[in-house]
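Hi support team,

I'm opening this ticket because the web form for multi-chain structure prediction keeps timing out on my end. I have pasted the exact lines I submitted so you can reproduce it. The total is 449 residues across two entries, so I didn't expect it to be a heavy job. Is there a limit I'm missing, or should I split the entries? Thanks in advance, R.K.
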Amino acid sequence: MSELPRWEVFKQDGPGKVHQAVGSVHAGDGQHALFTARSVFARRPAAVSLWVARADHIFALTKQELDAGKGLSEGNGGTFYIFGKKTNRRSMTLGDHLGTLEASNPQAALEAARTQYGDDLLVWWLVPDSALVRSTDSAETVESWFAPAKDKTYKQQSSYGVVGQHASAHKKAVRGGDHD
Amino acid sequence: MTETTEIMTETLILTEALKTALTARFTALADDEITLSHRVAEWTGHAPLLEEDIALANIAQDELGHGTLWLGLRAALDGSNADALAYHRDAAEYRNVPLTELPKGDWAFTMVRQYLFDAWEVLWLDTARQSSYVPLAEAAAQALREEKFHLQHTALWVERLALGTPESTRRMQDALNQLWAYALGLFDPLPAEADAVAAGLLPDVAALQTRWLGLVRGHLEGVGLSIPSASELSASPLPYSRSQHTEHLAPLLADFQRVAREFPESQVW
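Hello R.K., no limit was hit. The queue was backed up. Here is the completed structure from your submission:
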């Protein structure tokens, strides 16, 4: 079952916030991808909405590729959801939903997005509307998929004091122990 | 909310007989959750997909959390200790339904069992939200939220495996044939539960069985699986019940309880 296709996951942390690319799951279809995404990415902390899209249905381009003159492959026109990665600083997310636009093909959508959202983004993802599968906004779904996480303890990785520390901090601690 | 609780508690007179019935039901619920949680947790590190490994670990934790909830309700009635009950009772004292103690089997078996159990639990909790015993009504409302997600997740797997390949269809039908009679055991009323049901404290499991049959029959037959007939079932009735366990419970508990029994003085884990 490791041959199942990969789906990119977009999570919205709260009302009024944008969907952010948080990682991927393998799943047989869009609904299955949503369920696994909920377990993998939305059990802690709270979220209010999930979107998934098959990775091979996303039009993606990096700044380096753009600078080298590369464009997007051919594809149908329609509504595109534009995601962009703004910084290389370490982050839990891989890109933010910047907005939605209509275009006659992916390349035209990219050019419109560069005009609208700036030309200095590090990665562009263009997701055709038809490729997105969304969790429903019904009260029942929010209640059973997302609400339980709010009542549960959640710690960021950094609060465990082992992730993000330089290795020397641990070596020092060990040496300190030897002296005691 | 607090005000309501006080008013409800004042008007509700819990006789010793009703307390005994509630205690027995909370114990049965907790033991179902604990044993099933352990079986589900046995998949950790072994599930066919990394994502489902994580999802099942989540389900196992949720079920264990619900078990803790039920043991907490029992403690409020009889002053018992949840850890002592979970870790220091033997198989003969456990009151789970034999369905939840059966070995985890293959992926189809795990999904069918979880689906049948989730459907029962969603309906039981949904009804228990109306209980006149407010602590139960509140706990049921809390657990129901997670349980609805479990049910959607397992219903999805039942559909995909039943309609998947000839092999997955065969494994699903085999699992259903093995599990169906055990699942019906969920609807055996507990001894001395009738008065608590009549008093509006506990759901009527006979009425729940009708709703459950409607729900799971629709889904299972809708994806081409056949449910064992009444005549097949009566031809070989199960010799097991909540007080007569299969040979699988004792080894399950030995594994589940090993650390607690090895270090009985431990206070902090």
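A quick check on our side: The helical segments of chain A are 30-41, 63-67, 106-117, 139-150, 167-179. Let us know if the file doesn't open in your viewer.
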